[in-house]
Amino acid sequence: MEILAFGVQADEKPLIERAFAGHHEIRCLDVFLNEDTAPIAAGYEAVSSSVNAVLDGPVLEILAAGGTRLIAQRSTGFNNIDLAAAERLGLTVARVSYYSPYSVAEFAWTLAMAVNRRVVRASTRTRDFDFRLDGLMGRDMHGRTAGVLGTGKIGEAFARIAHGFGMRLLGWDVAENPACMELGMKYVSKDQLLAESDLISLHVPLMPETQHLIDADALKAMKDDAILVNSSRGGLIDTAALVSELREGRFAGVGLDVYEAEAGLFYVDRSLETVEDDTLARLVTFPNVLVTSHQAYYTEDAVGQIVDATVKNVLDYSAGRRSENVLVPRT
Question: Where is the S-adenosyl-L-homocysteine hydrolase NAD binding domain (predicted)?
């Protein structure tokens, strides 16, 4: 069976090709899967998609009409896939249910410390041989409060790092994590967490219940000098409301690895184009904001695990096996 993989990054391609060698033929494309590119998949029984693919009803219908029967997504999140439409069309859908939580947790802390200690501003200055310290003052994390929204594997890893800094830990989730409680985490309401935390990090999946979890009211509930980090999904934050608060001079720092309108924008070179997204254009102008391109997961360890799980998903499909990665089973 030959597989067509969409949205493959240059660093990712050799890992994918090595992993599939001896199993199935795979063709890697750097374009993302959407309604315009879906016809390319005609004749391919299996398609592998990236997290920024658009897999709504119309795209799935194009894939199914072209003979595709398996979609193996190379990510944990699957909010971009219309699972009901996939089931109706007889498409099997699998994802990667687990990869290194440390990759994302460590990057979330990278963002937090970068905005706290003004690293980007300092780096820009020193490139111009400006070595002043004006405007570069940060804060110790030791003794301050970290609020973790979502305390699964990634949230737990983030909390362990916060514990190492000597921080007070507050958590919010639908279920308490005993490992986090052993670190001294206290589970509180979302309102209390927002009001008391000096650093707030988001580690919850995007679903209808969590869309704009951090809305205008939530942002207003935070301390004026809080640090907000999102390395999960862009839709968790109402970005327009965030821009409004930033214009009022609020927040010591905001670190975003994700953006709610990133599909079709992130992972692509837009440097020679006019940016039509006014919200993003305004967001990146704030000196206390750092935006990166959904790269928190992007380590050799995590990507290797994602690729290995994707190979397993294809092999399981071929053998008629079902695993915990399957979202829509084979009929």
Answer: 116-291
